[in-house]
Specification:
The chain is mainly α. It is built from 18 helices and six strands. The longest helix has 36 residues. The structure holds arginine.
């Protein structure tokens, strides 16, 4: 069905239909479209544009469309340009002339903006809950890591020993910012564009505040032009997802390194690793690599929407139809990555001996020697130079650092103890640091943060339940 029988005399040329159709991807919005239409119908009823009977007929028709959609019996027609057209066509088939009243006071411009906000609201909340599940796994692995330590790196050079728990929670806290970003994005996008019409509102006595409340939006739009032309929320969502992807990518890169024979810090579970079609001995970290690789695509999704938006005059332009595929793609890919990476972290075996051996320096305790001298009153810069000189000496003359430390008048036996395996990590005692004291506290703080964020997600769950989950990706 076309929606404009009056002004345009002929049907659409085939090449135009093929080029402009969005149904193949915007069917994803079908249930949100029904949600928006129900509120719109009730709004028209409230202000007397539709009779109570018309409202009832339309709501029943919308329910039937929902049954058909969820039951898999909804028949899309050849001329359905987009999901909004398809739903309106079907409602009109079911409800006849009453169905022809559905689009009163509404344009696909405010309709699609509404649908997309509803879609973002429910899917971003689900993404946030998936992030929380991964954080939960990291917290559990941190708790179970009982004193295991490894070198912390700067410039990918061994720097200081850190507890494995501290390292895992570093990723956990980055993910906490992702959850926060997703939820504040949801909060900001939770504004209704419905009632803006094509661009300027309506001569009919619409009640956009009522409709906004019906949809669980915390406010209605302030400006009709902005309401239909704005896709900031799509760009924001894509930024949140891209940065989340960047975090997953860094985690993936680390697992790739750690699972090499060169590092040997971890062994991936067979269920979360892949083999080689040719080389019989191979066990590859493909999940970690794709967590890294797909992030390029997420950044592309964000970039593509920003570029679409940058040249657009107010208000709606058909270019805006290009917002959907990148958005849907990013949500799907991030969700898949989160689930797979959670499985990797759930099952990976840490090679604790390799980690410890790499961290037990004794060079990684050099700063502890310098700080011991500081505690004895030496200015730090002099302490740094003294210990640096011993390290150079040790390397150049091939004398173990321990011997030089033992023989040095300012250091001696007490200093040698700092170089014993496992000692240095216990000395990272300052708040937020990598040693046992602060890490024990940090694990509690992290657990509390998870609880708070779980409650924040739960707050939004009713709006997720209002519409079914997004379709499972093919395959
Ligand atoms: N499929 C369109 C989109 O996604 C719906 C809005 C169409 N509006 C219009 N004036 N042609 O943006």
């Amino acid at each position: 069905m076309t929606l404009w029988k009056g002004r345009i005399a002929t049907g659409m040329a085939e090449a135009v239909a093929a080029f402009t159709v969005s149904l193949p991807f915007d069917r994803e919005l079908a249930l949100d479209d029904l949600t928006g239409s129900r509120a719109h119908v009730k709004g028209l009823g409230k202000v007397g544009i539709l009779s109570d009977e018309d409202v009832a007929v339309l709501l029943r028709a919308l329910d039937q469309v929902e049954d058909e959609l969820t039951g898999g019996t909804f028949a899309y027609a050849a001329g359905d340009e987009d999901v909004h057209t398809a739903v309106e066509r079907r409602v009109t088939e079911i409800a006849g002339d009453t169905g022809a009243r559905l689009h009163t006071g509404r344009s696909r411009n405010d309709q699609v903006a509404t649908d997309l906000r509803l879609w973002c609201r429910r899917t971003l909340v689900v993404v946030a809950s998936e992030v929380l599940a991964l954080q939960d796994t990291l917290a559990r692995r941190a708790e179970d890591s009982s004193g295991t330590y490894l070198p912390g790196y700067t410039h990918l050079q061994r720097a200081q020993p850190v507890l494995l728990a501290h390292h895992l929670l570093a990723h956990g806290w980055a993910l906490a910012r992702d959850v926060d970003r997703l939820l504040t994005t949801v909060d900001r996008l939770n504004v209704s564009p419905l009632g803006a019409g094509a661009l300027a509102g309506s001569s009919l006595p619409l009640d956009p505040d009522f409709v906004a409340a019906e949809l669980g939006f915390h406010a209605r739009f302030e400006n009709s032009l902005d309401a239909v032309g704005d896709r900031d929320f799509v760009a924001e969502a894509l930024f949140d997802l891209a940065l989340l992807g960047v975090h997953l990518s860094r985690m993936g890169e680390e697992l790739v390194l750690w699972s090499t024979e060169e590092f040997g810090f971890c062994t991936l579970d067979d269920a979360y690793a892949t083999g080689s079609s040719m080389l019989p001995q191979k066990k590859n970290p493909d999940v970690a690599e794709l967590a890294r690789g797909k992030t390029g695509r997420l950044i592309g999704d964000l970039t593509s929407v920003l570029i679409t938006l940058k040249g657009l005059p107010l208000a709606y332009n058909r270019d805006l139809q290009e917002d959907k595929e990148p958005l849907f793609d990013a949500v799907t890919q991030v969700t898949l990555a989160l689930r797979a990476m959670r499985g990797v972290y759930d099952t990976v075996a840490w090679n604790e001996e390799r980690m410890r051996a790499a961290a037990d320096g004794p060079m990684t305790a050099a700063i502890d020697l310098a700080e011991m001298l500081v505690e004895r009153g030496l200015p730090f810069r002099q302490a740094h130079a003294l210990v640096g000189g011993l390290v150079r000496d040790s390397l150049e003359r091939h004398v173990p650092l321990v011997e030089l430390v033992a023989a040095h008048p300012d250091l001696g036996e007490a200093a040698v103890e700092l170089l014993e395996p496992g000692v240095a990590v216990t000395r990272r005692m300052s708040p937020g640091g990598a040693g046992p004291g602060p890490v024990a506290e940090a694990m509690e703080r992290f657990a509390r943060r998870l609880e708070v964020d779980q409650a924040r997600v739960a707050h939004w769950l009713p709006s997720v339940a209002a519409t079914a989950q997004p379709e499972a990706p093919p395959g």
